[in-house]
Fold this sequence. Notes:
The protein is α+β, with helices and mostly antiparallel strands. Helices cover 42% and strands 8% of the residues.
Amino acid sequence: MQDPAPPENPFASILVDLPAPAHVPRDRVVDITWATGFRPNDLTDPYEPCGWLSGPDIPRILFNPPTGGGVAGGGKGSWVVTHYADIDRVYTDNEHFSNKGAAGFQALIGETFRSIPLGVDPPEHSKYRHFLFPHFGAAQINRMEPQIRALAVEMIESFADKGEVDVAWDFGRVFPVRVFMTLMGFPPEMFEQFLDWEWDILHASDRAKTGAALSAVLVFLRGFIAEKESHPDDHLVSKIVHGQIEGRGLTDEEKIGIVWFLWLGGLDTVAATISQMFRRLVMEPGIQSRLRDHPELINSAVEEFLRTQPILSSARIATRDFEWHGVTIKAGDSVQCLNSAGNFDPEKFACPREFDPARKNNRHFTFIAGIHLCLGATLARRELRVVLDEWFKRIPEFTVRPGADTTVFPGLLSIRNLPLVWQGKERS
Ligand code: HEM
């Protein structure tokens, strides 16, 4: 009898001979563009292909060459870390890793202001974080919760009897953006325009389109800031414009840097997470029935949805030359943290591929770690909890509409349409 074939080693099969800087050893060069969220799949667990990158056989540091779409480091390529402990180091070791200039899309059109607070390093970063924190801390989110809940109820009740909804387009895309616009004080009629601009900035492959959207949004935001300067209100943009940092008013660069970055970070992150959450609930109906029977698990289940669907991976720039895991990292090199691997590291998470709604000590990287930990995390978590809570009270067992396309980008691009159906009063 023949021996069974050895298991295929996917790592060996994707080692490539692609260009890389001279200080990068050839055996670390791997094209992992596929793991950066730009290639859709139809798996129940869409991030599953990234998981083996945190396995014990994988070198602790790899190099993703400049192959195009989704690679950090611009035209130079990027080091990539995939194990929990290494990702944690990059996020927390501010001596060796900098975030200066992060999310600097505005430079494409010649703007020189910084994205605040994401593109600012310590010690300067903390003054902005202190300034903004009161608007995003638990006390403020508790005050906002009745409004968030009322909106969720109103939206869910508008389609509950119909027995169907496109949960990605008509709910996931709309609900968090309405919450965000209310928080900031933006006019509700800008809703579709904001989403169009954001799509062109984050996802369009055409630079001219990205540039046009950037110019348009910055004209709008500067006009809006000017309007709040003369007509203050109780919303966040007005509070930023009239706020004080270390006893002085904000400069124009600081005002636009903060308002712009909140605009960018707050619009479609929760939307993508909601869509992927509902996709998982229909692809793995056991989770749905468990949460329906045990609503007390909703809070920990939200953490598990976040762990298993890390829509973003972040990169940092090395501040100096140093040795790490047998290679020389040079000052100016980009180092990308693949959260979609780190969140499934078997050294950190027991049975990492299993969706366990009761998982304890779920310290995932979906909101990263360290000083740049997502400022909107408390708001995002609250929105997700409220949605599940109110949804299960009003919507019976649901499935995806037969024949619907369920392919998903394991990242921010996510899923544009996801039609769900259930036994509603108006549906026979
Ligand atoms: C599920 C939803 C969300 C996810 C997965 C998410 C993810 C992230 C990640 C990964 C970062 C770090 C980026 C980096 O280090 O390069 C970040 C930072 C940030 N996020 Fe979020 N985010 C979400 C929702 C929000 C919302 C709703 C807001 C605002 C309303 C927001 C505001 C921010 C801000 C201001 C930062 C920068 C924090 C700092 O530099 O100190 N996020 N977010």
